[in-house]
Amino acid sequence: MKAYQLTGIKSMEIAEQPDPEISLATEVLLRVESVGVCGSDIHYYKSGRIGNQVVDYPFVVGHEFSATVLETGPDVSRVKPGARVAVDPAVSCGSCDQCRNGRPHTCRKLKFMGCPGQIAGCLCEYVVLPESCCYPVSEQSSFDQAALIEPFSIGCYAVRQAGVLEGKQIGILGAGPIGLSVLLAARTGKPAGVYVTEPIPERRIRAAGAGAEWTGDPYAQDPATAVAEHSPRLLDIVFECCGKQEALDNAVDLLAPGGRLMLVGIPEAERISFAVDELRHREISIVNIRRQNGCVQPAIDLLESGAVELDLMTTHHFPFSETPAAFELVRNYADGVVKAMIHIGQTHTKL
Question: What is the CATH number of domain 155-288?
Answer without folding.
Answer: 3.40.50.720
